[in-house]
């Protein structure tokens, strides 16, 4: 009996020592804390900042107004340039319209002069014919002509006409017959030809100017449309309400209320609670056994509830730069060990009313411990 008690006592002591040692040597982090990425909200335009009354640490939801920027001196350079180009296009349209009007007047004047000349010349030829002999003049296409009383002895031949119609057999009669067709055969033909030529040239020039005028009006319409769009854009630039890009907490105000900022200047930082992670450091032995995607359990200090997660990033030693965009910066002891990032879905699903829990500490375990079944039973 004495030996039995000794054996049982030894087994109990050995089991207790095993549990104590196993609990301590099981892969776990030395420290772990809840972290979240920071989103820097910048001024979309230059102007005076009006911050919301929310203090640092206040919870904000998506699209909550964080601040507004008012610019009474919005940049109108582009609008002024477009207006200048529009004015040039209007001047070009006015120039083409004036030129078209002048060319059309010239065309009409030349055409009228040509018609007047042709009528006057035909009358002149008829007067000359009437002074010498009464010619059997007739309209083109007539089959016969009535001879004048004093021209009955004239012989009329179709071969003496321009197109086979009957006409006077004399040179003057032939000129009259041609003048009816606006063909002048004497020395005055040069003047008539010039009138007809320049009238046709003016008509062609007017057509070309009309084409240029259509193109110029299209350019003017395009500038008008661009000016309208630019004015709409300026309306949005003179005053802008900037909203939260993510649900989280206001982490930092990087400027004061009423300060004039430039476009792109940082104004506020928001911690994105929906993307929170757990930052931790481990020993080299534990770090070398880890792989991305390995399961892990995170327990907040002072709580018994274990939250399941996975290894998302293995940054190793000296991983200071990866914390530039995170809310909580690591300690010196943390950077001397090997950095690991853990994704815990339960933290990301926590309601905003409970806060993000950024900065809360705990421990992460990568292996089951001997007392885990008992912990699960008690929980």
Automatic annotation (TrEMBL):
It is found in: Cell envelope. Residues 133-155 are annotated as: Disordered. Its main location: other. GO terms for cellular component: cell envelope. Residues 79-113, 206-240 form a coiled coil. Keywords: Coiled coil. This is HlyD family efflux transporter periplasmic adaptor subunit. It comes from Maritimibacter harenae.
């Amino acid at each position: 009996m004495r030996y039995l008690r000794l054996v049982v006592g030894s087994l109990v002591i050995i089991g207790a020592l095993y549990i104590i040692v196993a609990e301590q040597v099981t892969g776990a982090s030395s420290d772990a804390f809840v972290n979240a990425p920071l989103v820097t909200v910048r001024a979309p335009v230059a102007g005076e900042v009006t911050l919301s009354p929310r203090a640092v640490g206040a919870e904000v939801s998506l699209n909550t107004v964080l601040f507004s920027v008012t610019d009474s001196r919005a940049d109108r350079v582009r609008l002024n340039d477009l207006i200048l180009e529009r004015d040039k296009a209007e001047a070009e349209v006015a120039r083409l319209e004036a030129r078209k009007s002048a060319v059309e007047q010239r065309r009409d004047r030349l055409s009228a002069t040509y018609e007047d000349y042709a009528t006057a010349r035909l009358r002149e030829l008829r007067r000359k014919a009437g002074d010498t002999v009464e010619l059997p003049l007739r309209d083109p296409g007539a089959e016969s002509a009535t001879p004048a009383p004093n021209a009955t002895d004239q012989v009329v031949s179709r071969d003496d006409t321009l197109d086979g119609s009957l006409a006077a057999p004399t040179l003057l009669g032939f000129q009259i017959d041609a003048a009816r067709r606006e063909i002048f055969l004497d020395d005055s033909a040069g003047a008539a030809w010039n009138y007809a030529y320049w009238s046709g040239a003016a008509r062609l020039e007017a057509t070309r100017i009309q084409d240029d005028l259509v193109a110029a009006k299209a350019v003017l319409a395009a500038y008008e449309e661009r000016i309208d769009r630019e004015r709409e854009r300026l309306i949005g630039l003179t005053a802008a309400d900037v909203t939260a890009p993510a649900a989280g907490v206001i982490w930092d105000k990087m400027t004061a209320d009423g300060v004039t900022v430039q476009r792109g200047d940082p104004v506020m930082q928001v911690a994105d609670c929906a993307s929170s992670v757990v930052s931790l450091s481990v020993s080299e032995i534990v770090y070398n056994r880890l792989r991305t995607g390995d399961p892990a359990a995170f327990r907040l200090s002072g709580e018994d509830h274990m939250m399941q997660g996975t290894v998302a990033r293995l940054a190793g030693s000296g991983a200071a730069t990866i914390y530039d965009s995170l809310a909580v910066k690591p300690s010196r002891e943390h950077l001397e060990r090997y950095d690991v990032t853990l994704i815990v879905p339960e933290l990301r699903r926590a309601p905003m009313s409970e806060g993000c829990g950024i900065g809360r500490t705990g421990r992460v375990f990568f292996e089951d411990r001997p007392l885990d079944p008992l912990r699960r039973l008690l929980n």
